[in-house]
Amino acid sequence: LLLNAKLPNSSGYTSMVINAGETQNSGVDLTINTANIVSKDFTWNTSVTFSHNKNKVKKLTGEDVQLYLANFGYSGAGASHQIGVNQPLGQFYGYVTDGIVQVDDVVEGKGIRYTKADGTEGYYKTAMGQTLKAGDVKFVDRNEDGVVDDKDKDIIGNPNPDFTYGIQTSLSWKSLTLKAAFNGVQGRDILNTGNRYINTPGMKSNNITSEAYQGMWTAENPSNLFPSANFEVQNMVMDRYVEDGSYFRCSDITLSYVLPKSLISKIGMKNMSVFASVKNAFILTDYSGYDPEVNSFAFDGLRPGVDMNSYPTPRSYIFGLNLTF
Fold it and tell me: What are phi and psi of 106, to 5 degrees?
């Protein structure tokens, strides 16, 4: 496990890459191929794949509890991922929220009322140095010291999926063939940085979705989902930006037809076929971003599952003609 280790300023550098620990991966891969129907004129074949992988950090050198990764997305956001012993790699790290501050949550002399993990009431007076008001995002004081700051950050999501799967099927009737391919991911979280701008009304938000605009908190509409237009959005990572990235995608549908040899031989051809294909035909997902199959840091295994408005997978329509002379 190669990580950046902090160096003293006297060295002239801030960090260096070292072999900082060990990781472990365990899981299972399954493939099932079936010949559902086999007859003279009609055949139907199917292939199903399933993969489950569980990774865990076994050892870290130096900071053996947790390490933090560099900023991303917007300046001053702090760490976005955490690495800890006996934990999966790349878990999301940030502030835990508890809805929106309501009028009754502002208690004079105590601060902001919130719900603790054990279900009892707690209070904090400031969050990131600010005194919150009704309509602001309500945070959770994890260490219960009366203020919300960096010490209250916690694990807020896991970008590692529970499992992935795929389905391929082929149906052939005489010279006509229909093929389809599907793939999916279940139980994967995505850190959608776009939510910082389009789904969080506030004084720093310029262009929000209609849902956020119509549902933002007002005295007449005390929403517990969207803050008010007066919320001072901070450059931070919080669980409001983490979404379920599970999806089921039809990645390909292809219809092909092989022309009879008795016909094409008259024009000097050995084989001729035509086909039509749709790539990325449809996707089923609850993810609000452009595409759940994204990773803005695709070449950094320590910062997985981040969507910084990545370009979505396009839908393509392909028509073709195959000729053999």
Answer: -90, 105
Residue 195 tokens, joined? 């939510």
Task: Give pLDDT tens digits for 73-112.
Answer: 565 677 788 888 888 988 999 999 999 999 999 999 999 9
Does residue 110 contact residue 123 with C-beta atoms inside 8 Å? yes
The Cα angle at residue 35 between residues 32 and 40, in degrees rounded to 5: 170
Quick one: which of 293, 305, 54, 309 has its CA closest to 158? 305
**What are the CA-CA distances from residue 126 to residues 110, 142, 232, 245, 250 (Å)?**
10, 13, 13, 33, 48
Q: What is the 3-class SS of 106-167, one letter each residue?
A: EECCCEEEEECCCCCEEEECEECCECCCCCCEEECCCCCCCEECHHHCEEEECCCCCEEEEE
In terms of phi and psi (left: phi > 0; alpha: psi -120 to 50; beta: otherwise), the region of 196 is alpha
Give the Cα separation of 298 and 159 in Å (integer). Answer: 13
**In this structure, are residues 66 and 59 in contact, taking their beta carbons and an 8 Å threshold?**
no
Q: What is the DSSP letter of 90?
A: T
Integer angstrom CA distances of residue 211 from 98, 201, 214, 220, 273: 20, 10, 5, 17, 49
| pTM, rounded to two decimals | 0.87
Q: What is the C-alpha to C-alpha distance for residues 67 and 20, in angstroms, rounded to an integer?
A: 10
Q: Tokens at residue 174, please? A: 């005489």
Kindly give, in sequence order, each residue whose CB lies less than 8 Å from that of residue 105, ignoring residues fewer than 6 positions away: 112, 113, 114, 134, 138
Side chain identity at residue 266, one-letter code? K
Q: Is 261 helix (H, G, I), strand (E, B) or coil?
A: helix
pLDDT of amino acid 76: 64
Task: Report the 10 Å Cβ neighbour count for 134.
Answer: 20
- Read off φ and ψ for residue 212, nearest 5 degrees: -70, -40
